[in-house]
Amino acid sequence: MLLGLGLKRPTRVPGYSAGDSARDSLEELAELARSAGATVAASMLQMRDAVDPATVVGRGKIDEIRVQRNAADAQLVVFDGNLTPVQQRNLERELDCRVIDRTQLILDIFARHARSREGQLQVELAQLNYLMPRLAGGATQLSRLGGGIGTRGPGEQKLETDRRHIRERVRRIAETVETLRRQRALQRRAREAVPLGAVALVGYTNAGKSTLFNRLSSAGVLVSPKMFATLDPTVRAVRLPSRRRVLFSDTVGFIRDLPKGLLAAFKATLEEAQQAALILHVTDVSNPRHAEQDEGVKKVLDDLGVKNTPRLHVFNKIDRLAPDELAALAHGNGNVFVSAHTGAGIDALLARVDEMMPVDPLVRLHFSLPLADGRKLALVHGLGRVLQSKVRDSQMDIEAELPESVVRNLQLKAL
């Protein structure tokens, strides 16, 4: 069982009170805990101007938490924030139970969902770097690492080893991850040899990116209401209305207040966003707090250095809105509104992607081909969009929209 505690300083967000923000963050913490397999027994919220340097919340609140913990028979307390090693040890001593913070909880979820070799290594690296300064507690603290949420071990590595062995393990993992990163870069360059533009789906966790990705590509990616269900990157080719093919990539969901140190654990999927020619920012429009979630996504994208990459905002889950709500939101803006669940708006989305893709632009060309050249005629019809055609003697006059690379490779000349 789990007792969640949120500590929030008053903040000023236009149109959004500090209390609302704190409660939303605490609800999100509870959802994270459930994604990690916990049962949330109770939650508490404290608003204060400054944290207590020793225990975060102060003596009076400590006593209140202890009473709540005992009443709920909770075995774990999760703080909605980042605890210093000293604060964590003090809290565990005062509450007589295990205490973890938001970062450790997210790392536990990463450990559950990483499937690829690189993803597992990156999660282990993040876990070890997080736990290193917490080894000062010695055997007493490490004796608590036997199992449960927040203790999911990084691979088979035993945390009872000394600092020197852990540093050596961190070094070896970092070298392996860098080797895998270089291999992935070579694979990406091989893909780029064929002029296929890359489109990355990004958005807040649970925005419906994987469902949309499956709808666009028939990829069969895991769809789950649990947070961070997608951790490893998936790339699939999709044909646009112009007959151009582009590569769509599904990425891990973002979350508010994500510690910068955890961005390394996202590296495999985030590199797809960094290399993309177009970013689709997917929003759960049915979530009443989607505007604040969007701001969190934009902040992470800015941190990744993709501020200048073309971006298309896709509002998902319109099937959950009333018609008048949807009409009010869609009026007078250039965003795309879809339902990945029902397929509504998908054709319009692909058309917008077609318009915005800067890679291998479309060329409208009037040209002629011999009727005997069946190969070129088939490629023109297969890779482009024929607008009109007419047989003239032994030639076929064609007007078509074709990717620039096709015009170049087939050596087509305008009439």
Topology of this structure?
Layout (H helix, E strand, L loop, with lengths): L1 E7 L9 H18 L4 E8 L11 H14 L3 E5 L4 H11 L2 E4 H12 L3 H15 L6 H5 L20 H31 L3 E7 L5 H9 L16 E6 L5 E6 L16 H9 L2 E7 L5 H14 L7 E6 L6 H8 L5 E2 L8 H11 L5 E9 L3 H10 L1 E8 L2 E9 H7 L5
Parallel strand pairs: 1-2, 1-3, 3-4, 5-7, 5-8, 8-9, 9-10
Antiparallel strand pairs: 6-7, 11-13, 12-13
Helix pairs in contact: 1-4, 4-5, 5-7
Keywords:
415 residues; alpha/beta; Rossmann fold; elongated; 6-stranded mixed β-sheet; 20% strand
Give the helix level as a range of percent: 40-55%
Looking at CATH, the homologous superfamily of the largest domain is P-loop containing nucleotide triphosphate hydrolases
CATH class of the largest domain: Alpha Beta
Report the strand count.
13
Task: Provide structural commentary.
This protein is of the alpha/beta class. 42% of the residues lie in helices and 20% in strands. The protein is built from 14 helices and 13 strands. The strands form three sheets. It has a six-stranded mixed β-sheet with strand order 6-7-5-8-9-10, sandwiched between helices. A four-stranded parallel β-sheet has the order 2-1-3-4, with helices on both faces. It has a three-stranded antiparallel β-sheet with strand order 11-13-12. The longest helix is centred in the middle third of the chain and has 31 residues, at 163-193. The termini are far apart. The relative contact order is 0.09. Mean pLDDT is 80; it is low at 9-16 and 137-146.
Briefly, what is this?
This protein is of the alpha/beta class and 415 residues long. It is built from 14 helices and 13 strands.
